[in-house]
């Protein structure tokens, strides 16, 4: 029995129901109450507080296993920051994606400077299997020394127009933020968005690059991987 499957023990509901509730919340822009309603339509009586507890307990574990199983990222990384307003304060969501738009890592911080750039880049490099060939950033000056220090062999390209891949990757976050009527704290935003990216990416293969039959096969493979990740039967 896997560690995730074993962690379902002593829960009132089986792993299939728990995994499905977590999937609903992280794949779509539903609130906990929205996930509760959809579960009720299927005959499962569970409160939104319980859905939230399941997401907090299992979301990061599911996302980590998805990252471990997915192919290695492309050798071109895009780094960007987007402004978040949380309780009247301005915070910054730091995000890194590869050339395919796959989210590599995120970090929510209250600063946008060289110290945070180095912290984020160090966290990013430690979590990947190999270093990138190219790093694309905006013109934030803090990236210059951070890339030189942590990725000295990478080709650093600083140009706002080259970073559309990272800019587009912020759109699902904005949709989630609107659905939640803004994040409540930096810690809550980090806790939510860290599993949200990998789970959503896993179920959003780029349909424009494949026909309908290939897309269906890809989705079937993704759902099979999800069942393996969550430790539930088909």
Description:
The chain has 234 residues and is of the alpha/beta class. It is 52% helix and 15% strand. The chain is built from 10 helices and 5 strands; from the N terminus they run ααααβββαβαβαααα. Helix 3 crosses helix 4 and helix 4 packs across helix 10. The longest helix has 22 residues. It is globular and about 55 Å long. The relative contact order is 0.15.
What percentage of residues falls in helices of 4 or more residues?
A: 40-55%
Strand order within the widest beta sheet: 3-2-1-4-5
Low-confidence stretches: none
Computed Rg: 19 Å
Kindly report how far apart the N and C termini lie.
Answer: 16 Å
Number of strands: 5
Kindly list the characteristics that best describe this protein:
234 residues; globular; five-stranded mixed β-sheet
Brief overview, please?
The protein has helices at residues 3-6, 15-27, 32-41, 48-69, 114-126, 142-150, 164-169, 171-179, 186-202, 212-230; strands at residues 76-86, 89-98, 103-109, 134-137, 155-158. By secondary structure, it is of the alpha/beta class.
């Amino acid at each position: 029995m896997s560690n995730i499957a074993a962690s379902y023990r002593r829960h009132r509901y089986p792993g299939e129901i728990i995994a499905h509730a977590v999937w609903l919340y992280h794949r779509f822009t539903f609130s906990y109450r929205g996930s509760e309603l959809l579960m009720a339509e299927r005959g499962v009586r569970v409160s939104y507080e319980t859905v939230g507890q399941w997401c907090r307990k299992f979301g990061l574990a599911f996302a980590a296993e998805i990252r471990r199983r997915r192919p290695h990222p492309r050798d071109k990384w895009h780094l960007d920051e987007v402004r978040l307003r949380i309780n009247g304060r301005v915070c910054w969501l730091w995000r890194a994606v590869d050339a395919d738009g796959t989210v590599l890592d995120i970090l929510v911080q209250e600063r946008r400077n060289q110290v945070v750039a180095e912290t984020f880049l160090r966290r990013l490099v430690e979590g990947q299997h190999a270093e990138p060939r190219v790093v694309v950033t905006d013109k934030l000056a803090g990236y210059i020394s951070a890339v030189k220090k942590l990725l000295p062999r990478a080709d650093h390209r600083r140009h706002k127009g080259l970073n559309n891949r990272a800019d587009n990757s912020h759109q699902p976050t904005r949709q989630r933020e609107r659905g939640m009527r803004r994040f409540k704290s930096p810690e809550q935003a980090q806790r939510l968005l860290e599993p949200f990216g990998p789970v959503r990416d896993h179920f959003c293969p780029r349909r424009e690059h494949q026909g309908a039959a290939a897309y269906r096969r890809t989705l079937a493979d993704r759902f099979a991987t999800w069942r393996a990740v969550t430790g539930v039967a088909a």
